[in-house]
Amino acid sequence: MKLDRPMRLLVTGGAGYVGAHTCIVLLQAGHDIVVVDNFSNSDATVLQTVMEIGGRRLCSIEADIRDRKAMKSVLSEGKFDGILHFAALKSAPESLEQPELYWDVNVGGTAILLEAALAAGVRKFVFSSSAIVYGTQEIVPTPETAPLRPINPYAWSKLVGEQMLDDVGRSRVNFHACSLRYFNPIGNHSSGRIGENPKQRATNIFPVILSACRDRKPVNIYGTDYDTRDGSAVRDFIHVMDVAEGHSAALKFLVTKEAGAGSDAAIFNLGTGQGSSVRDLVHAMERAAGTTIECRESGRRAGDIAISVANPERSATILGWRARRSLDQACSDAMRWLDDGSARSM
Q1: Is residue 33 included in any domain, yes or no?
Q2: In the chain, helix, strand, coil percent, each to 5?
Q3: Which of 50, 61, 165, 334 shows its CA 20 to 30 Å from the CA of 112?
């Protein structure tokens, strides 16, 4: 599905991990991009690399989505065709320690952004949600129709964001939104020039494994007594470039969707449909790195679940999107980035 014309798009959190990779895909598709980011957990310099890979320039504005005045100014002056909203905090363990921060940034910030978007007449909105809203499931792989069981403040903040868009979509003529529940993004662009590089200490497993490869440090595996094949948690690890292309597919869906009132926000899973354990991921990285990674067994973390795997058929049928890249490719691409020397110690 090809768009009739390039679009002018606002991308919040565009210097972050998934946001930056999505900007590459959007730039290569010919769109005009304005990134809004407060760079609290990202680096502004990554946007120069994004432009070089994407082959087009973008505009960057340093601002916080919680700043009502700034968001009103950006949206009222930007003449945007749509918004892709990535700006959020995303650590489940941290959300248990600072729940008020997650409600402030993820919920309050989204509300302020949405208020400014509606005032400016922007009617296309792609929301970066998360599979964490599913919680523990009996149905695996998990479809979008599964019951929602958030088990930590981060998960609740994402679910509230989805509900916010759903409510607005039902009350506004011609407002169309997608909430994308993606599972566990890993890897990076095949050039090896950008990757997941947070300023703050990483809590998700993949950057921790990368750091262990570089620094020859052991990896803590949190939870080795789950009811899984090898005792470690099972996740649907998906290449970040597949996730980025999923956002582009969602944007095309919104543009070509029939206009009409009472339209609730569409929900789509972004995942491979295949589960890999944490130990499987370690072994894949060992193959890519050509080295052995020492692992330490640790107790389960609060807010973690045993198994999380997507049923991606709805995305395949409606968006025309499927994950195309393998676990081994994600690890090989990540090693290319690690060898480039850009990754921080995590």
Answers
A1: yes
A2: 40, 15, 40
A3: 50
Specify if 346 maps to a domain: no
Q: What tens digit of pLDDT does each residue of 244-295 get? A: 999 999 999 999 875 444 456 799 999 999 999 999 999 999 999 998 999 9
Residue 60: inside a domain: yes
CATH number assigned to the domain comprising residue 101? 3.40.50.720
Rounded to the nearest integer, the mean pLDDT of the chain is 92
Tell me the residue ranges of DSSP E strands in the chain.
8-12, 32-37, 59-62, 82-85, 124-130, 176-182, 184-186, 219-222, 234-235, 237-239, 266-270, 276-277, 295-298, 307-308
List the one residue out of 224, 198, 228, 240 whose CA is nearest residue 296.
224
Count of domains in the chain?
1
Which residues span the domain enclosing 265?
Answer: 8-193+237-271+310-324
- Residue 216 lies inside a defined structural domain of this protein: no
Query: How confident is residue 207, by pLDDT bands cut at 50, 70 and 90?
Result: confident
The mean pLDDT of 156-167, rounded to a whole number, is 97
Of 17, 102, 134, 154, catalytic: 154
Q: Which of 82-96, 209-223, 312-326 has the lowest mean pLDDT?
A: 209-223
